Amino acid sequence: MSSIFSKVSDAYDNLWKAFIRPPRDLYTSAELGPRSFYIDKARFDRKDFQVQNKRGHSLQCSLYAPSLRLADDDAPCVIYLHGNCSSRVEGLSTLKSLLPLGVLVCTFDFAGAGHSEGEYISLGINEQDDVEAVVQYLRRSEGISAIGLWGRSMGAVTALNYIRRDPSITCLVADSPFTSLKSLAEDLAHTHTKVPRLLIGSALSLLRRSIRKKIGLDVFTNSPVDSVCQSTTPILFVVGLNDTFTPKKHADMLYSRYSGYDKTLHYVEGDHNSRRPDWFKGIAASFFRKRLGVETSVGSFDSGEMNGGDREIFDEMKKLKTEPLRLDPTVSPVKEMTQKETDGSDRIPEVGARRIGNEDLIEQNFKSVLVTGAPHYTVLALSLIHI
């Protein structure tokens, strides 16, 4: 019996850590790309900086901008918000879509993630303070006025929550958000076990208390669906058709509850952590270009690189004059950077699959807690353990 309780306790330990203290995505400076690089013969620079959030944590950030940008240039900027278990390296996937349009890109590590300070994350609550600190820096120190947000998973939830606090945000892309953390946890539990709802509710209540005890915050009050009901900020939603972590019903509900008129929802092939297809990145770039008021764009587009022959999407991307990304899923950022340093190139490194995120750790640990062994006894044991 003691061994069963020990296994359950270990699994439960992994579960709460998956929610608020997942493994950090640690990276090297080289994985952020060279200080100067080229896209379509245009030169861009990477500027690293730090800001401090309200809780006193130092956040590691990067700003990607044209090398010849003037001091008084108030070009628009998109801030990329990464997912759980990820880092600012994830935002590299947007550079080739946005920079040629004249849109600056800012990426940063949330507190408790990557190389930023902090021990815990909160899946979209405290992260709003991080976004606020970065927004204030960009407006104060970089002279940027129009700002858009591009968030994925935890980053998307953060963005949806933040626009209620800061209506000056011009627009946002929300990739794979959930409606509320409570509904997400219940969905995962119901998906992976046949345990009665009452017992699942007891286990989730225990998880909720444990997390609140550790970080002094009730993360289960995190409900972006309430935020979209009070927002009119233009939103582009996207979700993978094979996403088992935040199924499309979450995006569907957020889309339907959004109180504004400027909203779009796209379904793409893939799961929660799949890299989004180039055609969608073109749609997202067009979305930002129009809402941020970008007048000109640079680059080129080859229709031969597209799959599917979707004429409407092709026409939209052609307007952008943006070269689609060519990603090799077998090459990690570290290996890619080494190759480029060897041949003397100063192109940005591609983003390997491991940089997209590992939100399925939460899903895996739910399975471990609720399914391993005899589910009924596991959940009953959970409700008796005081952690």
Overview of this protein structure:
- There is one protein chain.
- With 387 residues, this protein is α/β, with parallel strands linked by helices.
- 40% of the residues lie in helices and 15% in strands.
- The chain is built from 13 helices and nine strands.
- The chain has helices spanning 2-20, 95-98, 127-141, 154-165, 181-192, 197-215, 224-228, 248-257, 278-292, 311-320, 333-343, 360-370, 375-384, and strands at residues 36-39, 42-52, 58-66, 77-81, 104-108, 147-152, 171-175, 235-240, 263-268.
- β2 (42-52) and β3 (58-66) form a beta hairpin.
- α1 runs antiparallel to α12 (360-370), α6 packs across α13 and α9 (278-292) packs across α10 (311-320).
- 49% of the residues are buried.
Question: Layout of SSEs?
Answer:
Elements (H helix, E strand, L loop, with lengths): L1 H19 L15 E4 L2 E11 L5 E9 L10 E5 L13 H4 L5 E5 L18 H15 L5 E6 L1 H12 L5 E5 L5 H12 L4 H19 L8 H5 L6 E6 L7 H10 L5 E6 L9 H15 L18 H10 L12 H11 L16 H11 L4 H10 L3
Parallel strand pairs: 4-5, 4-6, 6-7, 7-8, 8-9
Antiparallel strand pairs: 1-2, 2-3, 3-5
